[in-house]
Amino acid sequence: MQDIKEIWKQAVAAALTELAQQSGSVNIIRAEQVVVEIPPKPELGDLGIPMFPFAKVLRKGPPQIAQAVAERLTSSGIAQWGTVAAEGPYVNIRLEKAAVTKQILQAVLEHPEDFERPQSLKNRKIMVEFSSPNTNKPLHLGHLRNDVLGESISRILAACGAEVRKVCIINDRGIHICKSMLAYKEFGQGKTPESEGVKSDRFVGDWYVRFHKMSQEDPSAEERAQELLRKWEQGDAETVSLWKQMNSWAVEGIKKTYERTGVSFDQYYFESQTYLKGKEEVLKGLEQGFFYREEDGSVWVDLTADGLDKKVLLRKDGTSLYITQDIGTAIFRHHDWPFERLVYVVGSEQQYHFKVLFKVLEKLGYDWAKNLYHLSYGMVNLPEGKMKSREGTVVDADDLIDSLKAMALQEIKEKNREEAVGNGESVAEKIAVGALHYYLLQVSPTKDMLFNPRESLSFNGNTGPYLQYMGVRISSMLRKKAGSLAESGSVKPELLSDEAEWALVKTLSQYPETVSLAASQMDASVIAAYLYELSKAFSRFYHDCPILNAESADLAATRLALSKAVLEVLKSAMNLVCIPFLDVM
C-alpha cells in the first residue's frame, strides 16, 4: 500500500515541478522535499503542506505558490483522495474519508504484510550487536534494557525491508571471569548448579560476589586473579579446563533467559576466539606507524589530532584490552557477513570507547568503519538505587520476571479469571514480559530511567498490560461475531461518519510512516508511543460507536472490520516492541 501522505507528497511535488518549469527553472521538486504536517486546528483540514521551502526556486511568495498548487491539484486525479485549499502559505488538504477508509481497510485486512512493511530500507544489510553478557554473572535489569532495545530495533529495521543479522558477543575472557574462577577454585569444592539447585548462570555469579568479599579480606586476591588471566592466555591446561566449565554454566543459563524473553541471535561471537585477531591488527598498525610503543612496552594510539585522546591498545605484558578484542571482532564480523551498517547497542558510558574504536578501524584502512553506529542508551535502576554486580545488589533478570509474573498471577486470581484464561501461569508470564518490555522501551533510549515493577503492571494508562487488554477486547468481539448483527452485514466504508471512527482510521494510516521513523531514528519508543495512541483512539471509538449492536447490519460489519484492522496493526506493532500478544487475560 502506498501511504496516504506519500500520495499527496508526490502530487504536490509534481505540481511544484510544473510551476518551476513554467517559470523557466530546470529544478525538479522531489517528493522527499515536500513536508506534510498536521494543521493546528481540525477545521483547517487533515494535512497541511508549507510552501516556504520553494519560494527561492519559484521566485514567488509562499501564499502565491500555495494558491497555484491548490488550483493544479483540484483539477488533477488526486481529487479522489480529498479536497485542497490554499490557506496563506499552506496547501491544506481535507481527505476524502470514504476513499481513505476503504484503502486502509483493504490494505490492512487483505495484505497486512505489505501495510506493515514500508520498505524504506529494502535490501540494506544491517548487523545489530546487543546484549554482550559477561560469563561471570547472570543477566540483570540493565541487560534487559539492552536486550529489548536490540531485539526491537532489529525487528523494526527488518520491518522496513532490511536484511538484519543479530549478533551477540560473549565476554568469556578477562579479569572478571578469572575472579569468579579463583573464588570457585578455592571454595567450590566440586559443587555444581545441579548439586546446589541453582540456575547455572546464577551459580557462577554467586562466585563473583564471593570474590569481592574475599578480596576485602585478602589483599593478594586481585594479583592471584591476574595470574589466572596470564595462565589462561598462556594455555595452562588446568586453568583452561576450569574456564571452559564455568563459561558453559554461565552461557547455558543466559540462553535460557533469552528464550524466556523472546530474544534470539543469528550468530554468537566469543571474545576468546576474536581477541588474538585484535592483537594481530594492533601489531600490524604498529609496524605501519599508526600506533606507537611506550617505554614500558605497551602499545598506544594517539588520536589527539582527531579531537580524542591517547589510548592504550595492548598492555605492557602484551595482554589485550576490551578495545583490542573489539577491533578483532568487528573485522571477523565484516568478513563473515559484509554488512552495510553495524549497530552496537551499548550503554552511554561507552560512548568514548566507540569513538576510539571506529577511528582506530578507519586508521587500519577498513572503509566500512564509517558505517559503524553506537546506539547509546541510559542507565536503568530500581527506586532503591544503583545496582552493583560485585556486591550482589543487582536484580537478576529471572528474579525480576518471576516477581512480575507472581504479581500478574495474583491479579488473575483476585479477579477470578483463572478458568477464563486457561493456563494462568503462561498468561501471567506473557503479561510480565509485556509489562517489562513496554516500560523499558517507552522511554527514549538516551535517557536514564527508573523501573517501577508495580507501576509497569498497571492495566490502566500507558503500560504493556493496557495494550494487551486492547487486543483481548477486540479478540473477544471477533469471537462474538457469529450470530450477531455484523455477520449478515457488508463492509461499507462510507457509513463511517463519526469523528471517533475517522480519528481511528487516520491513526491506522500513520503506522507505516511511524515504523520508518522509528528505524531512521533507531528509537523503539516511537512505536511504543504509537501503540498507546492507537489504543486510546480505539478505546474512544469503542466507547462512542456501538459495534456488534450498531444501528444496522452493514454499519456493524464495517465497524467490526475497522476493529479487526486495529487488531492487525496492534499485533504487528506489539511484536516490534517485543510485547507478547494475548487474546484472553
What does it look like?
It contains 23 helices and 13 strands. By secondary structure, it is an alpha/beta fold. The strands form 4 sheets. The protein has a 5-stranded parallel beta sheet, sandwiched between helices. A 3-stranded antiparallel beta sheet has the order 1-3-2. A hairpin with a 5-residue loop joins β7 (292-293) and β8 (299-302). α4 (97-110) crosses α23 (553-576) and α15 packs across α17 (424-441). It is flat, with a radius of gyration of 29 Å. The mean pLDDT is 93.
The number of distinct β-strands equals 13
Shape: flat
Distance between the termini: 33 Å
What is the average of the pLDDT values? 93
How much of the sequence lies in strands comes to: 5-15%
**SS-based class:** alpha/beta
Strand order of the largest sheet: 6-5-4-10-11
Uncertain runs: none
**Relative helix content:** 40-55%
Q: Count of helical segments?
A: 23
Rg from alpha-carbon coordinates: 29 Å
Largest sheet: 5 strands, parallel
Core attributes:
alpha/beta; 585 residues; 10% strand
Give me a quick take on this structure:
This protein is an alpha/beta fold and 585 residues long.
